[in-house]
Structures are given as C-alpha cells and as structure tokens.
Backbone:
C-alpha cells in the first residue's frame, strides 16, 4: 500500500462567530453554473451567512457573500424554473426555503465583474424542516421538484412555491438522510429503526395524508436492516440501466444497486465522519470506475474502489464534508470543509513530502536574486527597528501624559455579601480593596483605556477588567481582591495592564505591579517547634526590629505573643500552615515545615527590607545564604511536586476518558430505545430503560468526581508554582550570572499554571531539553539519554522520567556554580517513586 500526502492548493477561512455555529450549521455544495462554466463553484452556508467561492490561481476566490435572515440548514442546486437556462440555488431554512438565481455581470472598467444573487421564489411552511432532496420526481422533464423532510418525519413535496402532497411515516422518530434515485424514480429513506427503505415516487404520492386515513400501509420496494445508524446516503449513476446507492454507517460502508442487490460491504477499523463517491468516466462506458472517498476522525482520507483500498492520505484536518471539484487549473480536486470553518482544495500528490508546509523548489536560483532578496529583507528590518524606536518614544510620551498611582487598602474581614464563594465555609470572608488613580494631563489625546488585572490562585479579582471610553482628567478605579480556595500561595503580587489607545489609533501597553498586604493572607500565630527548613538572609548592618519591617501587623496583634521583637510567627489563612521569621545580630532566618510556605514570605520580606533601607537612605547589602542541605531538599521538593502534579493530571485524564465512554454508551442506549419505541408493536424496553438510568447516574457521579480531581490538580499546580518561585527567588538573590537566571525563569514559565490550564509539563518539556543541551556542555550520549520520546505523551512513564532528570541536572549545575568555592557539589536525593 502506498501512502500519499495531500498537498494543499487553495484554502479559505470563513468568517464565523463561534465554534458551535460552525459545527452545527455548516453545509457545502459544489456545482457548476452557466455563468461560470470554466470552473466549479463552491457554495458554503455557515449560520446565516452564504458564501460563493471560485478558487483560481492569482485571483480572489470569494465571488459573493450575503447574510440571510435565518439559519441555513442545507444548500442544493437544480433547475427549479423551467424558463431559466442556468441552475438555481435553493437554500433550506427551518420553516422556509428560498430559490435564488446567480447573475454575473462583466466589468467594463478596472473594477472587475460583479456577482449577485436574486431571490425568485420564497415559500414558507409550518413544520420545522430537517433536510431536503431535489430532482425530476415522477419523470418530470420541465424542472426539478422539491422534497422537504420535517423533524417529525413528514415528507412534503413542492413544485416551485406550490404544495403538492404530504406523506407521513409513523415509524420515523428522528429524521435521517434521504436521497433520490433518478434512474428508477425512487427515494432512499433512512429510518430511525436503522433500516434503509426504498419507495417509488408513485407510492409516496398514493400514500398521502388522505390515503393514511384509510389505514393503507406503506410497503417499500425493498429494504435493508443495517443494524446501525446511517449518517449519509449518496446515489451515483453507474450504468445505463442502474444506479448505485452508497450509505455510510457508524462502522460500515454499504453499496447497493437500485434494485436491492448488495454490491459491496466494507467494515472500517476506524470511525468515519463523512464520505463522497464519484465516477471516473461516463456511466454508459463499460470501463467506468466507482470510487469512494472516506474521511476519518483521525484526520485521514481513504479512497476505495469496491472493497479495495487504493490510497490513504493525511488530511491534517478533521473534515466534516467532502466533495470533488473541477477547476480550470486543477482537473480533479478534493474539497474539504474542516470543523473550524476552513475550505481547502487539495490534490493527491505522488511525490512523498515529509514537510507539507514547504513548497518544493525545482528551479535554479540566481545568486544575484538571492542578494537582492537579502537586501530587501535588511531594509524591512531597518523599518521595523525604526518603528520600535517610535513605539518606545510613544510609550514614554504616554507615560508622561498619564500618571498612574496604585494603592492597596486595608483588608476587610468578616464582611457579608452575596457572592459565589460564600458557600465555602473553610475560607474566612475577607477582601482587600485595590484603588487605582489615573491622572491624565491631556485627556483629548487618549481615545480609551482598558485596565486588566492578572493574579494567581487563590486570589481572584471581583472585576476582571475595566474599560474607560471617556477619559477624564482624574479617574478613580476601585476593585476588590478576594480569596477563592485553600491552595498554597504561589504569587502575592497583582499585575495590572493598562492598554491605552491614543487618537491616532496606536496601542501602548503600560505595566504596573503591586504587592498584597501581609495581613490579607496572614495572621500572627503560635511558634511551631517542628520547623525543619531554615533559610538564612545576611545583611552587613545590625538586624532591625521585626515590627519595623512588618508594618502591616499592629501592636495589639503582637501583644498576645512573646518575643515578637526577634521572632514572629505567621499563619496562612488559606492552608493554616505557619512560617517563622527571626533575627539574630546580622542575620535573619525564615523557618517552616515545608518549602511552599517559605516562598511568599521570602518575597514579601525582601521587598519590605529593601523599602525600609531605601526610605532611610542607608546603603546595605542583602545576601541570601541557602545551605547545601536546603538547596538539595528544595530541588528534591520541586521534582516531587512535578511528579505529584503529573500523577493527578493522569488520574483526571483517566476519569475524563471514562466519562467519554459513558457518554457514548448513553447515546447508544438512547438509539436502541428509539428503535424499540418505533417498532410496531413496541418491544419490551424495561432493561434498556434501566441501563439508561444507570448510565445517567454514573455520568452524574463521574462528573462530580472530575470536579473534585480538577481541584486536586489545581492545588498540586499551586504547590509546584510556589516551590518553583522559591527557586527563582533564591537564584535571583545568589547567582551572579543573571542571564542564566532569566533563562531558567523563562524555561519554568510558572505563569502558565492557571485554574483552567494545567498543561505545564507539555510546555516546558521541549524548552528544558534545549536549555540542558545548549546552556550546559553535555556529551552526545547524555543528550541521547535525555531526549524525550516524541512518539509518546509527555506524561508517559519514560518522558516524565527524562523530564525530571533534565530539570534535576539544570538546577544542580546552576547551584553548583553558586557554591563553586565550597567543598563538594549539591546533589539532590534520588526520587523514590517515578510514575
């Protein structure tokens, strides 16, 4: 079997509002019109937007775009008006259909040609429509008739805007695909009982609503029980006497002659999404070949002739619709519509291409042309650099025009108000106001300002952002910071982004950061005698009174505790854990039971200490002095936090996969119940009803379990971020090579850990490999050992183990350089357990 890559020749991204609309209301039709007879045209309906494309090299593919008044359910083409020489377009809406004529007017100037659609027939009906099929029913030679299937399974037949008759089937609970066989004047109807039934047009006309009142049953010409849901049906004329009926099921592809004889049956080992069948040659020729294209859910395209697989291709996208087109520059193309609303015209290439995004160059390029292109690139770079200088000048000008002052108010405890976090009894009701004062000297130069707050869990902002359209001279913005859960504190700083748009339309972004008050998330507590972790901070001056450093804490709060001059213990309000700050001569120390508690306190203590000496104009040197044991335990704790976070993520993924299985099981039971309900007489359904109720209850239980495990993953992510920020803070205050510190900070990317996004391991796996191989000199053998297995998931046993080894090597070597003058190297404990 040969494997071929699908090479993209043309693509277009449609304008859609959201993903759900694209997925639920997308339909495509490819046909040729007399006004554009040199190439096929592509009609696309998305939501209430109708677009007409004509792909061609060097020209704009979009010919027409119009917004209709209702959602488009289906688009078909045909000759619905007898006097018209061109094919018309019929658009099906929920309770009406409209027939349009396509007109093309050649341009007399450089403006080019004009295309427009004119509605010639509009017809409304009371029943809500599901789909339609068109054709010369009853051997009509003048024009095509219209058959609309409603949601209740009723078939209504129309001639232009005239209602002909209605046919009702009592065993259709959910409408399915319908196709018309022109050679034998019959209809293929897929019922909710998983059966294909074929009726002639004469039968349907005779079994109208009046005939049903006389208790006349509809007896099909022939039928076939597929035993699975049929998702699509297509009819292709394959000979002078017969047509082929191709039906796509959940796991099979069926091919019948219109007399009921089965020609082929293909069982798939994948899940098909859509298909398209076509004939190579003319149907009256003996050598005509029927080919079927099938798109799978794993983004592949399979082409069959009979039961033989001819080609298998990578589509790179999940196609929801397939078709074949003939374009003047491409005799046979494959048109695909993806889930995200992208139409692509492709062709099957016979040359293997490992990188489909790179064009194959066969021409010999002149060195003179290469030099000319390099000079043009240099000129473009100079323009970019000059634009950057202008942007820097704009930022400085805006910062001079706008004065920004941020201030944190006093925390308010035991307040009462209706909020979504009030039900969490484990959290103390406390909030801290954040006040921003904007003073604009020249407000007429500013168009608008948008304020965005960024904070890390467990902190949240009552208002995510503020938009100021009318900028005044003085603007005061107030919001509240709250605590939402009982996670470890990873970052106690609030980042504020000011997006300023001036009158010329230029966008300038100004960053500000403010530290939360210590009293907001801490209270004074009892000394914990079990503290085993200690970090020393040395200064070249005598230690200060701790009450002068922690100004947020009042004397009344310290009066209940002894020795608060040289020793203060703080208790975190979210986790009830403690951290102790003590002073002795020229050295401070921070002690705790675990490392996540030290991280926010170290950051707050260093900021407060620097602020005090800056205000008093005293020059002092502050040095963080971690011991070897502290460094080894800190690295070991960081790697264990990564391991714990990965294990919880794997548990969550396993539960989510179980939910997917239960959802498919619930859908399968529902379908089977519909078949039982639709049978005459109705079959015994107690067992299926019990199974459906049991599956529904299991889905409810597993959803609650997913919510709980998601909270566990987020809590593990906060612990990981807290230990990671401690490592960065220690490196920033101990290392002399700031470039490596910045690289490691960017490599860890701890800001990626949010409540909704926990894919941290995937983000840093590639970066850690690059840093480990480029920043430090490793042998080729070591590089090979540390290379992730790309065929497996990042959380797999092998890849996770190698990621931990990479991070361990990087951190050890960085701290080794810090402790270069001491004896021995810093070594972390070996991980006892690896997933």
Residues:
């Amino acid at each position: 079997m040969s494997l071929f890559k699908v090479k993209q020749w043309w693509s277009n991204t449609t304008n859609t509002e959201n993903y759900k609309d694209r997925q639920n209301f997308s339909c495509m039709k490819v046909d040729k019109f007399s006004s554009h007879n040199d190439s096929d045209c592509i009609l696309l309906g998305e939501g209430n937007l109708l677009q007409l494309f004509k792909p061609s090299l060097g020209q704009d593919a979009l010919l027409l775009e119009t917004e209709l008044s209702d959602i488009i359910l289906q688009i078909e083409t045909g000759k619905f008006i007898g006097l018209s020489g061109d094919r018309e377009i019929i658009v099906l809406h929920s309770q009406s259909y409209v027939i349009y004529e396509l007109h093309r007017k050649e341009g007399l100037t450089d403006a080019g040609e004009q295309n427009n659609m004119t509605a010639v027939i509009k017809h409304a009906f009371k029943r809500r429509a599901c789909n339609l099929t068109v054709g010369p029913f009853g051997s009509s030679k003048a024009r095509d008739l219209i058959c609309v299937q409603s949601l209740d399974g009723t078939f209504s037949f129309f001639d232009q805007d005239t209602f002909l008759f209605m046919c009702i089937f009592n065993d259709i609970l959910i409408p399915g695909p319908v196709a018309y066989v022109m050679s034998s004047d019959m209809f293929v109807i897929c019922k909710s009982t998983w059966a294909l039934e074929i009726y002639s047009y004469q039968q349907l006309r005779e079994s109208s609503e009046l005939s049903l009142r006389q208790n006349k049953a509809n007896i099909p010409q022939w039928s076939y029980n597929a035993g699975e849901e049929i998702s699509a049906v297509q009819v292709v004329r394959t000979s002078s006497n017969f047509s082929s009926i191709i039906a796509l099921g959940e796991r099979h592809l069926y091919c019948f002659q219109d007399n009921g004889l089965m020609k082929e049956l293909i069982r798939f080992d994948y899940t098909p999404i859509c298909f398209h069948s076509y004939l190579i040659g003319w149907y009256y020729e003996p050598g005509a070949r029927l080919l079927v294209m099938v798109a799978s859910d794993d983004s592949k395209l399979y082409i069959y002739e009979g039961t033989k697989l001819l080609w298998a291709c990578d589509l790179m996208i999940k196609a929801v619709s397939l078709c074949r087109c003939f374009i003047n520059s491409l005799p046979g193309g494959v048109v695909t519509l993806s889930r995200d609303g992208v139409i692509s015209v492709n062709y099957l290439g016979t040359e293997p291409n490992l990188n489909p995004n790179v064009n194959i160059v066969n021409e010999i390029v002149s060195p003179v042309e290469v030099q000319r292109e390099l000079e043009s690139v240099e000129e473009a770079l100079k323009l970019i650099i000059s634009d950057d200088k202008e942007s820097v000048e704009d930022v400085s000008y805006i910062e001079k025009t706008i004065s920004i002052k941020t201030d944190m108010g006093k925390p308010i405890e035991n307040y009462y108000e209706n909020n979504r976090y009030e039900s969490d009894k484990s959290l103390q009701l406390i909030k801290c106001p954040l006040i921003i004062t904007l003073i604009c000297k020249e407000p007429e130069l500013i168009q608008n300002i948008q304020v965005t707050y960024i904070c890390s869990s467990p902190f949240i902002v009552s208002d995510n952002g503020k938009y100021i359209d009318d900028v005044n001279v003085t603007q005061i913005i107030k919001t509240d910071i709250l605590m939402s859960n009982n996670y470890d504190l990873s970052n106690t700083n609030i980042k504020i982004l000011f997006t300023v748009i001036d009158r010329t339309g230029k966008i300038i972004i100004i960053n500000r950061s403010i530290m939360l008050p210590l009293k907001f998330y801490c209270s004074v507590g009892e000394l914990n005698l079990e503290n085993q972790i200690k970090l020393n901070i040395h200064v070249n001056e005598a230690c200060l009174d701790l009450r002068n450093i922690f100004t947020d804490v009042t004397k009344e709060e310290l009066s209940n505790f002894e020795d608060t001059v040289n020793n203060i213990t703080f208790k975190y309000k979210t986790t009830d854990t403690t951290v102790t700050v003590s002073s002795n001569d020229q050295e401070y120390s921070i002690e705790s039971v675990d490392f996540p508690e030290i991280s926010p306190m170290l950051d707050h203590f260093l900021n407060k200490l620097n602020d005090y000496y800056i205000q008093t104009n005293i020059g002092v040197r502050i040095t963080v002095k971690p011991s070897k044991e502290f460094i080894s335990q800190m690295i070991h704790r960081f790697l264990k936090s990564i391991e714990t976070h990965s294990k919880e993520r794997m548990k969550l993924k396993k539960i989510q996969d179980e939910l997917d299985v239960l959802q498919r099981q619930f859908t399968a039971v529902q379908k089977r119940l519909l078949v039982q309900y639709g049978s005459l007489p109705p079959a015994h359904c107690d067992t299926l009803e019990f199974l459906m109720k049991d599956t529904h209850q299991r889905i409810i239980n597993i959803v609650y379990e997913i919510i709980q495990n998601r909270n566990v993953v987020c809590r593990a992510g906060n612990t990981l971020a807290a230990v990671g920020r401690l490592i960065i803070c220690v490196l920033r205050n101990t290392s002399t090579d700031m470039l490596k510190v910045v690289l490691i900070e960017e490599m860890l990317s701890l800001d990626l850990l949010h409540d909704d996004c926990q894919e941290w391991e995937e983000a840093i796996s590639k970066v850690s490999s690059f840093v480990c191989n480029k920043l430090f000199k490793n042998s080729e053998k070591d590089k090979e050992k540390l290379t992730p297995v790309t065929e497996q998931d990042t959380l797999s046993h092998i890849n996770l183990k190698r990621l931990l080894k990479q991070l361990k090597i990087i951190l050890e070597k960085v701290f080794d350089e810090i402790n270069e003058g001491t004896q021995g190297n810093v070594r972390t404990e070996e991980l006892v357990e690896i997933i």
User: Anything to note?
Assistant: Residues 628-678 form the longest helix (51 residues). The two ends are 39 Å apart (CA to CA).
